[in-house]
């Protein structure tokens, strides 16, 4: 029997939640630092430095407040190549997501390395922050590039 | 008036206290058979509901099955009037990013004549005039702009008919 049921209509559906969050004192300082092109970590009770700055110690849950400037340079500890970036990703051309431990920090964090090609990526490589032309106080105010 | 550059420099002295972190999801939405029929009909200026075979109530827009009884609806569409009655309303004074209407505006729950479910839309009327039981009618886009979209109806407007009796819409409040 031939089906006479017409095809169902389809349409793109874009759902967007326009969330904003208030930052509190520690994260406000961190993001203000980004806008002013400064990278701020936070010191834990044992003297080690977390980057990015956090409000609470992830192990002990203690409140943290002593902000510590860290260097805009660091080392890649792990990475993955994004050969086909999606629309929402930070760069339109291929890039690496990498764990980067900044000089002066004791923890690595996930961020973008604009290396041009996967062949230029390696664990242990040195990277440096490259700021966007107009910073606004967001983690996307900078990416890393190979030193 | 301060220049944009001045405003920016002033803002540059202020700490960043709020972070914008939108969540965006892209879907390819399939309307399914029943809603597709509804949308094809609205492209012709017709409003289709469907009648539940169990209790005879008319659901609008038409859909595949009855949310009350779980039974599949048949192919029998019910064409509804574009006139109806305001069941409840709300005056909106707070902006919303995806609604471009000038504030304040009126949202209404409309019970279309012949339907047993309400439709949420906006009403073009003076704020002091809107009331429960008010009779209204859809205002459509020009016919040449009709598509398979509920946006073919721009808004509702009051019409010169006596208010509906409370008993006729009270179960929908």
Give a description of the structure:
The complex is a heterodimer of chains A (about 150) and B (about 170). Chain A is mainly β and about 150 residues long. Chain A has one helix and ten strands. Chain A is about 10% helix and about 40% strand. In chain A, strands 8-7-6-9-10 form a five-stranded antiparallel beta sheet, with no helix packed on it. The longest helix of chain A has 12 residues. Chain B has about 170 residues and is mainly beta. In chain B, the strands form two sheets. Chain B has a five-stranded antiparallel beta sheet, with no helix packed on it. The relative contact order of chain B is 0.15. The interface between A and B is medium-sized, with 31 and 28 residues. Strand 2 of chain A pairs antiparallel with strand 1 of chain B, so a sheet runs across the interface.
Tags for this entry?
heterodimer; A: 147 residues; mainly beta; 1 helix; 10 strands; 39% strand; globular; B: 173 residues; five-stranded antiparallel beta sheet; three-stranded antiparallel beta sheet
List the helices and strands and how they pair.
The complex is a heterodimer of chains A (147) and B (173).
Chain A: E1 10-17, E2 20-22, H1 24-35, E3 39-43, E4 49-50, E5 67-70, E6 73-82, E7 95-102, E8 108-113, E9 126-131, E10 142-146
Antiparallel strand pairs in A: 3-4, 3-5, 6-7, 6-9, 7-8, 9-10
Chain B: H1 4-13, E1 18-20, E2 23-30, H2 32-42, E3 47-51, E4 58-59, E5 77-80, E6 83-92, E7 105-112, E8 118-123, E9 135-140, E10 153-158
Antiparallel strand pairs in B: 3-4, 3-5, 6-7, 6-9, 7-8, 9-10
